[in-house]
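Recall that a protein's primary structure is simply its ordered list of amino acids. Everything else, from secondary elements to tertiary packing, is in principle encoded there. The following example makes that idea concrete.
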Amino acid sequence: MSAQAAAGREGLAVGIAERERALEVFFEAEQAPLASACHELARAFARGGTLVAFGTGAAATDAAHVAVEFMHPVIVGKRALPAIALTNDATGAARGGRLAGAGDVALAIAHGPPDPAVGRFLDGASERGALTLAFGAAGSVPVADHGFAVASEDPQLVQEVHETAYHVLWELVHVFFESPGLLDEACITCGDVAVEATVVAVRGATAMVEREGAREEVAVDLVADVREGDLLLCHAGVALERLAAGEGDEGADDPSGFLYPFMSSAAPADLDAILADVRTSSVRKGRDAIELRRGIDLDAVRACAVAVRERLDRGGRLIAFGNGGSSTDAQDLAADALARGWPALALTDDVATVTAVGNDVGFQNVFSRQLISLARPADVAVAITTSGSSANVLAGLEEARRRTLLTVGLAGYDGGRLAALDWLDHLFVVGSDYIPRLQEAHATIYHLILEAIGEAP
């Protein structure tokens, strides 16, 4: 191995180590907030709420990934949950703010400093009473009921941690559906007397208050300038007044303590145990993602990057495609390549063409038909398929080969039918049969390829 090749491989190894550190730090810090968010998300779905996801730039592909994961579960027997992804522009943000209302969930994603459109989306949703979640980078997480920060300034690394995190949300939200009692709405202000509760989130004219582990949304019109951490006296879903710290504490020395008796916990007795299990599971899932990344062949990554760079230097373009979550990965790859100055496109971006071809000549032709018109000899075709056997992906690669494109495949399991294509120029197989984890490894692979390619001159 030449000194240049060795240095390149070392750089890729450093990138893997940085990803391990970021994932470990994130899940150690966020395991409890993630578990709490899972519980609230499950409650929202149980009440008939819809998840509305939004991001701009490359983060828009993550919003789409979130929606498809919840709407089209990859685990047999898990319920489909209502979710949509908004368009990647200010119009989508405004529409989303109106679309996500009381009982819904608004989820925003930003890989770097938040776009003002992301803030407008969350503000609009919050004003209408939606539960809000935000994924961002350290120091720049948009304001939300639940905010999750990745300790990195590398947008691609941030994206990979986000992907694992929202996969974990989707995976673990189903835990609470197994125990319907955990989804019942607590009513901590329904008794005959007013009770004290602490504000944990403010949403326009309402606030989420907590008392002994149970939460309830109350109107705050009667109390001015309510803020998180305030102690409120509440009754029948309405905040009556703000209490000074310690004012409502029960004790032998407090003659008014009987006016504000603590209720016995309204939460199911096993909620703490379930949340503890969810926290533990989220950390374990992060470690599983780390283990898969350790299996990536860095020499193969570098060899692929060299071949792709040669095509790009000749004026070629990256053309990426895949289905479902892999289609959003293809879109992310194209967006990241464009950000580095290289020409790139994802074949699923043109929805009109995809649906026209699918309707008229069959879904198996949606990629090959586009390549017949778009492909140039110096281009690179990057196909992403978790099974390795998607018929339309294979047809796309066959067409790319006929047109002398460099062909790159990313697969899971044992490589599926891609592994039998002896003419495929580069193939990366993530040896896992669990789709969320192998998709996360796919993201690392194509990000590392882009890092090895470098910036456009």
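Residues 43 and 79 are 14 Å apart (CA to CA). The chain has twelve helices and 15 strands.
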